[in-house]
Amino acid sequence: MVLKRLTLTLARMAGLLLSITFIAFLLVEFSPLDPVGKYVSSLRGVSDEQVARIAELWGQNLPWWERYLGWLGGVLTGDFGVSHIHRAEVTDILATAVGNSLLLMAMAWVLSAVLGYGLGVLAGATRGSVLDRVVVLVCYVLTSTPTFVVGLVLMLIFAVQLGWAPIGLSQPLGMLSEDVTFGDRLQHALLPAITVAIVGIANVTVHTRQAVGEFMESDVARFARARGMGTWTVVRRHGVRNTLLPAVMLQFTSLATLISGSALAEVVFSYHGLGSVITQAGLDSDVPLLLGGVLIAAVLVFVGNFCADVIAVALEPRVRRSVAAQEDDAAHPAPRGEVAYAPGPQ
Question: Measured between alpha carbons, how far is 265 from 241 in angstroms, rounded to an integer?
Fold first, then answer.
């Protein structure tokens, strides 16, 4: 039952990824992007014959559907093509960029989860108090503040004025990649990660506040308080257990927002990650690198959603009962004119 559902989820994700590659290729094909013209504009004394030769070398003289099938066939075999601007394998460029982005997103994911959940618990347990109103106000402000504004403010304060963090980049300037330590990468990723985490705190906080507030009004919480338990004892012993799993699932399903936020932060901090690579590839009309970056970003989003499904099925009994009830209804449909009855939780 569980294996069947996860298999269907993987098949659906594969179909969606195929659709994304097709739509992305069409958007690039019919957009104003001109890879040959962009490349030739940086050269001098290029004749028309040479321009035609470059277009033929890059396959620009072929119909779009032939180029799409050729690109898709290469992707299925692990060949993303060669970057037009960098003249290097797209897989090599994306490997470095994805590694930097994963470090940034992992730090931002953990920070936003811990801070967002903690603030949500505080606000939900003291609903209606001054603390609750302050937390809600902060969430509204963060939701309406663009990521690049938060990044510029943090850079101005902690990098320029205080000098506590590097101003930008993903590694120290002038140092070879082979000599860069994990501590150096961590130091350069800290400020962008804090930027993304601050912007992503609001969703987890508001969701957790609502969940904790509803739990504190439930019969379980009332019974616990009637037995003499204090508010924070009830939250620690019962509230966390009932609200932590939905918050974790929300974090996994919000990877799309996390990726978009990290892309803006990477541009602000000149951080060499997936977002900055995609942005620069679009500006340079580097089609192979742009398509490869978009595909990898989609894969990361789908992985996050798949992890959320796995956690929900593996750890939440109510989800397993719901799946079992749906499969039982499908296998034994109710006779026409009758209504299938599914008993609620006892």
Answer: 34
| SS (HEC) of the chain | CHHHHHHHHHHHHHHHHHHHHHHHHHHHHCCCCCHHHHHHHCCCCCCHHHHHHHHHHCCCCCCHHHHHHHHHHHHHCCCCCECCCCCCEHHHHHHHHHHHHHHHHHHHHHHHHHHHHHHHHHHHHCCCCHHHHHHHHHHHHHHCCCHHHHHHHHHHHHHHHCCCCCCCCCCCCCCCHHHCCHHHHHHHHHHHHHHHHHHHHHHHHHHHHHHHHHHHCCHHHHHHHHCCCCHHHHHHHHHHHHHHHHHHHHHHHCHHHHHHHHHHHHHHCCCCCHHHHHHHHHHCCCHHHHHHHHHHHHHHHHHHHHHHHHHHHHHCHHHHHHHHHHHHHHHCCCCCCCCCCCCCCC
How far, in Å, are 39, 129, 266, 278, 345 from residue 60 at the CA level?
A: 13, 64, 31, 21, 61
What is the percentage of the chain residues whose pLDDT exceeds 90?
3
In this predicted structure, which of 130-134, 202-206, 334-338 has the lowest mean pLDDT? Answer: 334-338
Q: How far is CA 326 from CA 11, 237, 279, 322, in A?
A: 19, 33, 43, 6
Residue written as token pair 């897989």: 91
What confidence score (pLDDT) does residue 235 get? 81
Q: Which fold has domain 90-328?
A: MetI-like fold (1.10.3720)
Q: Which pLDDT belongs to residue 318?
A: 52
On the question of pLDDT at 26 being above 50, the answer is: yes
pLDDT tens by residue, 298-346: 888 888 777 777 776 666 555 445 444 444 544 444 444 444 434 444 3
Ordered by start, the domain boundaries in the chain are 2-76, 90-328
